[in-house]
Amino acid sequence: MTNAATSGERLRRAGALQRWLTRPELAAVAGAALVFAFFAVVAGDSGFLTLGGTASYLEVAAQLGIVAVPVAMLMIAGEFDLSVGSMVGAAGMIIAISVAEYGWPLWAGVLAAFAAAVLVGLFNGYVVIKTGLPSFIVTLGMLFALRGLTIGFARLLTGRTQIGGLDEAAAGGVLAPLFSGTIGPFSVTVLWWVLLAVLGTWVLQRTVFGNWIFGSGGDPVAARNVGVPVNRVKITLFVCTALSAALLATIQVLDAGSADVLRGTLLELQAIAAAVIGGVLLTGGYGSVVGAVFGALIFGMVSQGIFFTGINTDWFQVFVGVMLLVAVLFNNYIRKRASEAR
Amino acid sequence: MTQTTADGAPLIEARGISKYFGSVVALEDVSMDVRAGEVMCLLGDNGAGKSTLIKVFSGVHPPDRGSLLVEGEEVSFSSPRDAMDRGIATVYQDLAMIPLMGISRNFFLGREPTRGRGPFRRFDVKFADRITREQLRRIGIEIRDTSQPVATLSGGERQSVAIARAVYFGAKVLILDEPTSALGVKQASIVLRYIARTREQGIGVVFITHNVHHAYLVGDRFTVLNHGRSMGTFERQEIGLHELERLMAGGAELEKLEAELSGGGE
Amino acid sequence: MEKELSRRDFLRAGGAGFAGAALLWAAGCGGQQGGQQQEEGGGGGLVERGDIRIEFVTHGPAADPFWSVVKNGVDRAAADLGVEVNYRGPERFSIPEIQRNFEAAIASEPSGMAVTIADPDALVPEVRKAVDQGIPVVALNAGLDVWERAGALNYVGQTEYEAGVEAGRRMREAGVRSALCINHQQGVVTLDQRCAGFEEGLGGSVTEVAVKGDDPTAAQNGIETALRQNPDVEGMLALGPQGALPALKALQASDRGGDIRFGTFDLSPEVLRAIRDERMLFAIDQQQFLQGYLPVVFLTTYAQYLLHPVGVIPTGPAFVTRQTAEEVIQLSRQGIR
Questions:
Q1: Which residue of chain A comes nearest to C102, CA vs CA?
Q2: For A264-273, how does the pLDDT look when each residue is reduced to its tens digit (9 = 90+)?
Q3: Residues in A 167-186 with any Cβ partner in C closer than 8 A
């Protein structure tokens, strides 16, 4: 077996710092701290550190974060969902059209949107499983198809691509405060985000299903061989990403009182970026929900923080791109050093 | 000496198994059996049919002809899960180990222990960690941190963990597909030692390899396949290492070749 | 070889990241808005001009030709008065993004905000939030019906419905009985009002054609299709350059270009040339330069002296026809009209 010399070094218990440094979410947490420090120093007295400023970047983070959590979990299981952005647009229009155009009660419209999300998720999952095509391609196709269907049906049924007037339908009901209410200066969106993050973390780290997610992403063939229902895991996660998109759409529709066919454009890329910043491997099998949470937080802080520095908001996208690269490089660097040291 | 089960039947037995893939004859009338507490080495060159035979044993392929018996009873497996449930555990070359996942997570993948009920049913991480550590200690591997990725183990250690996992989950028959083929000498010796230990626990081991030396180190009996046919099953006393090599390489054919190449110009 | 991961490595990596970010910030600072110079003679009142910061939150992307004139007005006013003004437009029309811009602007506690209330349901609450926090708000360009209840000081812009009516009247005089109304940006209430007024002024039938303003090729196709599907129309009204330019191309491509009386809201160089060359009947100038300039003035005087004009300050409609086209072209080159 292991000889004396090697067993000596192997027996040394992993230092606490060492173990912590190899966690996937490290880069995201450190990145978030860095970004926060940056904006606090540069824009602290311009409003970044005020309650209102904090609420504004938390809102952006929360809206992205709601979708980033299941997207990250799906990526850990080894698949991509590029259709979430289009799903947001579609779900929003389903609610708006059914309520404003056909007079449905609000709860029925929301239910219809969620039902549609389940169907889209199932479709994505089955096509990926049955055809064996990369999910990147399948969901890319769905991205275009769903967006096209949304625009087409919107024009067909209403002649418009943007539908408003939902505030009246929502007034007095229980749905409006549930999805667009506020608690102090913070909106309910943040609560939903936290809820999903906690749920996602618990499922991933503490349940059998979570172990299956890691297995399916790490090596689906090996996982199947030991009896993991890889197909079921992936299809379930596709449904989850679509549902989270429907949730975000509901929140946005009730918040703005309107829906438009272009809502959610580019969201899928932002969600993937948040997950990658959070330490999720593009090849699957590794990552954490907590990381994606901090990835979304970084997005929020950068997109709103740049506002307070007085820099032209055109530079926002440059910041995001650089941030992404820096976070991933940092992550790789730390992981490499930490695993060399073992 | 070799042992049998209580009623004398071998743990698993293949009788006259044939398997065809289209017009390709993968196996033709192959018979083989494994008894409890012995290491049966399945030898043969590449393409001899070893993989196909063990896939039949582990429920991946149904045989086209012939029958499969488990503890004397004829069975027909509809899926690998079936075979697993009957105690036939296969450790493939890829080990079914997921490199980025932790050791204890890997150990219990697909058979996770749980505690709690209903929506609060959770993966019992503590139990998994404890058992993993114990089982690995039994085969001489000390782990600092059971959540460290499997990729941090050496090749020989990984094989041993895979075997330990199969043993822990109640394998009666352990089928090892070329476990030492990708390993260096030192790593291979770790695995071979562990295989010998496993035999002592009364498990029947099918050790597939094309490395005759490794086979001869631990094997009790040897079955040689060649182009889908069995060249026979031999006890250890019956056959020597050199003989086994010759048989694997093609026996009579090789002698002829030898004669041709050396005797050429005379 | 054993290498312990040291705190030094960690700090090194973090330091590199921080340095990179700081570099970027320094680069970005170079692109900051102008108007920082202290001007003499701007003193007196409750605050100094140099301390005044105004946040412009609109629904118009700065790249849009219409809104870039507004921004020119904003920049001119900022330079003339010596105050700081930040222009915040979304990348493309998206209500949630505008809401976020509102929230960030409010949180930055500016001396005043100038906003377009493009979607009353979504944005009136935001304006109210600003007002309740003591930030004075001037509404411009959109929100004619709601600025008062939202709590804004006043409204600078065109009375859209009336402008539409006038456009309809002129078309009727030119012999048009049925027309198309090209809407290039659904969901903005001002555009809807223009079409509605147009219908009333025309007294005939108006069919609304919705196109995607940010995709000129698709818009042109949409308009060509509409022309084919409505063979009896004699007139066409576009609601902005994003609709007018594809419409001009569509008219060129179609064989009915000569029979159709075409007018539009808002100016652009191509539109002005078309009027000069008599391919278009008129363009309605809402003088959006003033919509950028005046709110800055009003918010500055409010911040300094608590004075502000009350009510609606109409900046349009001003009709540009062949007679005045040439002069307007010159001013347009300077980004004034």
A1: A56
A2: 999 999 999 8
A3: 167
